[in-house]
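User: Run a structure prediction on this.
Assistant: Running it now.
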Amino acid sequence: MTATIVTPTGKKADADVRVRVRTSRLVLYTVLVAATGLMIGPFGWLIITGLKTTPELAASPVHWLPDRFQWHNFADAFTQIDFLGYARNSLIIALIYATLVTLSSAWVGFGFARLDAPGKKVLFGILLGSMMLPQMITLFPTYLIFAKVGMVDTYWPWVLWGLSAAPYLVFLFRQFFAGMPRELEEAAIIDGCGYATVFWRIFLPQSRPVLAASFVIAFTWSWGDFLAPMLLLSSDRTTLSVAIMTQYVTPGGLPVNNLLAAGSVLYVVPILLIFLVAQRGFVAGMSTTGLK
């Protein structure tokens, strides 16, 4: 039987290791807390702004906290405009776009991942390169096209955008489908299935985490979009983002900043709820796409 002798030098080394581990953890937690504060700080300031009066917003020096919380600002922000009506418009557009673009991106990603064709790599490179194009560059030409075919002030542009897939979502699905075993589709093809059946019955059901992540991302894109609804929709059919930015004003046309802040807080709530509900699928989808 062999006895293990711990020398004073060994104890000191172990103590040094524990000190280094504790120090590194403390530094890591400090950085994480600081980063969290930087991320939630603007949202906290938005809530505080929504609880102030107009004179407190105009006070100099800055009035950091309100003397009395003006909770009625949130009720006023909700009732001063047709909040539910505009929210319904945003919800319809976001659901249409998110559903269609998720399915179309999955189909395109499946093609890039599992099918062979001449020039596939070149097309995929062009697709990735299109992600660098700002929305402003493509929005005005598409507006002219929609105006020519009579689709302005309708929701058809979001239907067409959804059917056209999104480069980033195509990339996510392509990476996920590329990591699936080749034997799955080979067995299905031997049984007489076509590639469309393989996609709908085998690959799509297996991609639920990526589907959840893609839906949340696409919904957020559409819900937070300001330029396209501002350009394509009339004031009656526009979205909540446009209404909040344009309708909390005085008779003289000046913005009412406390109501604008309160309405913005209410505007963010649906996105937070969707993320809280789908966060497991979102995180799993982002972590399983790989980097092949």
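The chain has a mean pLDDT of 86.
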